[in-house]
Design a protein that fits this description.
The complex is a heterodimer. By secondary structure, chain A is of the alpha/beta class. Chain A folds into two domains: 186 residues, no CATH class; 110 residues, no CATH class. Chain A is 33% helix and 20% strand. Chain A is globular, with a radius of gyration of 21 Å. By secondary structure, chain B is an alpha/beta fold. Chain B has two domains: 93 residues, Elongation Factor Tu (Ef-tu), domain 3, CATH 2.40.30; 133 residues, Rossmann fold. Helices cover 22% and strands 30% of the residues of chain B. Chain B contains eight helices and 15 strands. Classes of the chains: A alpha/beta, B alpha/beta. Chains A and B meet through strand 4, strand 10, strand 11 and helix 9 of A and strand 4, strand 6 and strand 13 of B.
Chain lengths: 338, 279
């Protein structure tokens, strides 16, 4: 598809236009971090920082979502919730877009299609933004991604200094910038140079190619006790993760009206796997820690054909106990080859 | 595409108290129209979610056979949802969604002897299985059917009238047992399920075992089956893990890379040997 050039002034106009026909979300500065918020003008955004506090997953799989409503007087009759708005998400980093591609597989790529995820996904256009200066916690290139990766996106923007190279990846993405001028060979060369520099700036490394065979026998290894010692099972890692998809379903009723809602849940909570009888198959904190690590690097390989860590580094940044998932995997591999 | 989270409306036709402790009730559910019942296809071993809007929902194994008109669930009262369910009166409307999960491996079981081992109130999907296998149109496709079913006491055995009739049926060999004889005239065998299974000693030659029961029963049943010569690939267990969605999305019921809801609830012992024992 034709690559185009969008100046900052053009992007401003485009955003204003998108905001008229639907919602636009982009990273916005909040205290000392950024997060995806609804905007109407480009001036509200901060597109420079890596990376938003939470991933973009919440725009497709909200932290809290109404599944359907009901009235207490008719406890057998569910009324479906309103259809979501169309939305453009601007400034999605490649790691987050890759995370959405993994969520696509979980929610709609196998078995039953998740109605609530799919109807938001169908109404969403993802506009990515290449990373020039990855954070010191970033390791996308170690898990199959890249600071300029396009997987999951409809359009990728690369900041060439006051103007953006726009690479459409889907028809939906191409339509957004169809009236913009074509990019020149020197624009493409500049992007390639920026991409190389960003890739070289990534220092966190794990070799996931070796993992699959090794992790086949990792579940029962005593090393998990040691690796999980600092973990307090707070679940922060799971809430900031772009690929975590666990949720709880609960009913809320007030003044005769009620709703069945779903909210993010975490496998780090001790009640997550607790049976009604009180029996708990993953009571030990180390078992919960192992479950999360193994899920990212081994279980999802069986489930959806790939490692489900996209290297965004958020779990490293947000962990109150200072646990670094790359270090965990490295120490695990050392224990397994012993 | 239908929304898999939306419960279908069903009517509670009949509620039966199953045990002396009165904490196990069987609910017979009927669809409003015959078409909805027809399109609710299931195979024994599958489960459904029962739902009371405003209270919540929970998964239960289907206790009726596909040939039966109503959909039957036997539920123990343990928490908020099951208490609300137990408080219902016949005629109430509730929600149901499913059927979810795989089933017992009937294709593999064809032409083989079948040994069913069950303890306590886990007998539900195995009742479904037995009724299914005893169907005159199907019985000849399977070999000898041996059932060992036990409970703490006579009053805790499920489906008493039905199992009494099965005791004298030529189509299956049923051994009922209780942990301790308490003077009740029936059943006659005292003993824990694994020990009784050892006495009954069904042949493992060309046979498949289906096991469902509390974790402690399962733990002691495996060595007996092994002793009798059952290979892990011919032993099938039905697992129950906490779950929220039933369709492999919410994450809760995972055992390593497997979801009990979607990849199970029935697993061969051979499969389970490769997984962490998180069930």
């Amino acid at each position: 598809m034709t690559q185009r050039i969008v100046t900052a002034a053009d992007l401003d106009k485009l955003v204003a236009g998108w905001a008229k026909s639907g919602a636009v979300y982009a990273p916005v500065e909040v205290k000392d971090w950024t997060e995806f918020r609804r905007i109407v003008s480009l001036a509200e955004t901060d597109l420079t920082r890596v990376n938003t506090k939470l991933s973009a997953r919440g725009l497709l799989f909200p932290h809290c979502e109404t599944m359907f409503r009901f009235e207490a007087s008719r406890p057998d009759k569910a009324q479906e919730a309103d259809e979501p708005e169309t939305q453009v998400v601007l400034g999605v980093r490649s790691c987050d877009a890759a995370g959405i591609a993994v969520l696509d597989k979980f929610f709609s790529g196998q078995g039953e299609t998740d109605t609530y995820y799919q109807r938001r996904r169908d109404r969403t256009t993802l506009v990515g933004l290449s990373c020039h200066a990855p954070a010191d916690t970033c390791f996308c290139s170690a898990v199959g991604g890249s600071p300029t990766g396009t997987r999951g996106l409809d359009l990728l923007l690369t900041d060439l200094g006051g103007r953006y190279l726009a690479e459409p990846l889907t028809d939906k993405g191409a339509a957004l910038v169809k009236d913009m001028p074509e990019a020149s060979a020197s624009d493409l060369a500049k992007k390639a140079e920026l991409a190389d520099r960003a890739e070289a700036a990534i220092t966190e490394r794990i070799d996931t190619r070796k993992l699959k065979g090794l992790l086949d026998t990792a579940d029962g290894n005593p090393i998990w006790e040691e690796l999980s010692l600092p973990c307090v099972n707070c679940g922060a890692c799971t809430f900031v993760c772009p690929t975590c998809h666990c949720f709880d379903i609960t009913d809320e009723t007030r003044k005769g009206k009620g709703a069945r809602i779903r909210v993010w849940d975490t496998c780090q909570s001790c009640t997550y796997s607790q049976h009604a009888s009180g029996h708990n198959p993953r009571l030990a904190p180390s078992a919960r820690f192992r479950n999360r690590t193994m899920d990212k690097f081994r279980y999802t390989v069986d489930q959806v054909g790939e490692v489900s860590c996209v290297g965004c580094g958020r779990c490293i940044r947000e962990c109150p106990a200072g646990i670094d998932i790359c270090e965990t995997v490295e120490r695990l591999m050392l224990a397994l080859v012993k | 595409m239908p929304n898999p989270y939306l419960p279908l409306s069903v009517k509670v036709e009949r509620i039966s108290i199953e045990n002396d402790a009165r904490d196990l009730k069987t609910f017979d559910l009927a669809f409003g129209d015959a078409g909805a019942r027809k399109s609710f296809h299931f195979t024994p071993g599958q489960f459904g979610f029962l739902s009371i809007l405003g209270v919540g929902e929970a998964p239960f194994g289907i206790a009726s056979a596909p040939s039966e008109e109503t959909i039957k669930y036997t539920v123990k009262r343990v928490g908020t949802f099951t208490t609300a369910l137990h408080e219902l009166e016949p005629g109430a409307s509730i929600g149901m969604r499913g059927p979810w999960g795989n089933s017992y491996p009937f294709e593999l079981m064809k032409g083989k002897d079948i040994v069913i081992v069950s303890g306590g109130f886990s007998f539900t999907t195995l009742r479904s299985t037995i009724v299914y296998l005893l169907d005159p149109s199907r019985r000849s496709q399977f070999g000898k059917l041996t059932v060992v079913y036990g409970a703490r006491s006579a009053g805790e055995l499920l489906y008493k009238d039905e199992i009494k009739a099965w005791e004298s049926s030529p189509d299956l060999s049923l051994r009922l047992c209780v942990d301790r004889l308490d003077g009740a005239p029936w059943p006659e065998t005292e003993g824990l399920v694994p020990n009784v299974l050892k006495q009954v000693a069904p042949s493992a030659a060309n046979a498949v075992a289906l096991v469902c029961g509390p974790p402690v029963m399962i733990r002691f049943t495996h060595p007996v089956l092994e002793l009798l010569g059952f290979k892990p690939e011919n032993v099938f267990l039905s697992l129950e893990n906490r779950m929220k969605c039933g369709i492999g999305k919410c994450g809760h019921c995972n055992v390593g890379p497997k979801y009990v809801c979607k990849d199970g609830p029935v697993f061969s012992y051979k499969e389970l040997l490769r997984l962490p024992t998180e069930y």
